[in-house]
Amino acid sequence: MIRIVYFNLILLLLVNFSLENEYPEENPLDYGNLNIQQQIMNLQAAQRSINKKNEDISDAQYSKSNSKTIPLQLKEDYKFVDNWPASSKKLGAVSAVALDVYKNVVVFHRSDRIWNAETFDPQNIFKQRNLGPIKENTIITFDRDQGNVINEWGSNLFYMPHGLHINGNYYYITDVALHQVFRFNIKNSTRKPDLVLGDPFKPSMTSKTFCKPTSVVQLENGDFFVADGYCNARIIKFNFKGEKILEWGRNSFSGEISTGAEPPNNFAIPHALTLVPSKELLCVADRENGRIQCFSWSDGKFYSQYHSKIVGDRLFSVDYANDSLFVVNGPDVRNRDVAGYIFDINSGEVSGKFGSFLDPHDIAVTPDAREIYVGDLSPDNTGSRIHKYLLNGIKPTITREGDSINTVPSTKLPMRHGETALIVGSIVLLFAVFTVGIAILISKRKRRGKKIVGHLKFPWERADSKKLFYNEYNQFEKIPQNDDSTSDNQNEFA
Predict the structure, then answer these.
(1) Which of 135, 159, 169, 279 is the most exposed place for a label (fewest CB within 10 A)?
(2) How far apart are CA 305 and CA 175, in angstroms?
(3) What average pLDDT score do residues 111-116 get?
(4) Residue 112 to residues 287, 336, 481, Cα–Cα distance (Å)
């Protein structure tokens, strides 16, 4: 019995020792020999370790939805898809990725524009206005199956792309250089937005102005949320007309020093947003705090938060599907794996892992959670900045209504109910006429005493029927991609 107790104690000590070495505590660093970006990262990590407190928030601890256990090995059920996208379209830093109404993949990229330490002055004013807007199309639509370019637009509109959210015909876009939020109804125009919030090139903090806004997400009733983002560290809810309903949040680097986790409602760059319809939650990627915070989408009340040592100190983006929160992290001072991770939204535990990235910036997941798309600021060894993963590497069987792979250009809109009814009625009428015609022909043949069987042949029964059909599943020829292995050196500022 005593031997068993000694054995268990030794085993426990060994486990604790291995965990301490795998996740060491922050160490003092000599900032004099580090570059500017590394200094900023280390300073932010040091500020996080101080654990500041906001007097307005009760001393709430992490909810049960906060991962504390570390599994021995994470499941990796998602497999990388080679040669996707098939197109040779050259992309700049991909700041956002989303799925349109047809479930095609839409990418928002920066072309040749680079965000680095010289892009903004200390007052967050864009210093490269003289360059003008990006001349190339910044919004590219790829078909989800083959990855061919379907449609592109967005030239001469944006200075520093950041966020993209799509709800039906509405495209919500944020530009951190302009400090503005745009909404385009692509049914009407891809050149003129139907709603613009914020003053161009003027960082501010009012009910309709922003400072480097990062992300938008819209509810089905038309209300939408804006993450106002790099400077103001707040979430604002608007109605469809762009009138403010409520706001919450403040910078996590303010307040008195205390122990424990960062308080709820404090943000160190609210960087991405997603919705959890089953729980009516808005979830926020709290980037420099390395966590997800979730709030009631009706009143902004804090609900839960998700954090794990596995994911690390930085968490760039989040998307929800099938009771899971899919996230991508970023480089941090502890040099953890830069990858994708999956939180179980009910238990809060990290249930899976996928991919390996350089500077992942955004993520989009299909509603059935079978496909994952990640946008990266830096190109991989093939030159690609957009990556696709499939559950178990198997092409999904389409089972959900409206989840089909559609290669119609994204500017084409869904048919209205009246148009659908007209088409259905026309088909029924044509079928009725065809049936009556066949009946008349059979009746005439009977009256003439001719045999029916063996004489009446439809076109597809003829020997030359192959000429009547066109094979719509022609194979696409692979187009080699351009080699672009250079990094933008912008992972901290993006």
Answers:
(1) 135
(2) 27
(3) 96
(4) 25, 29, 17
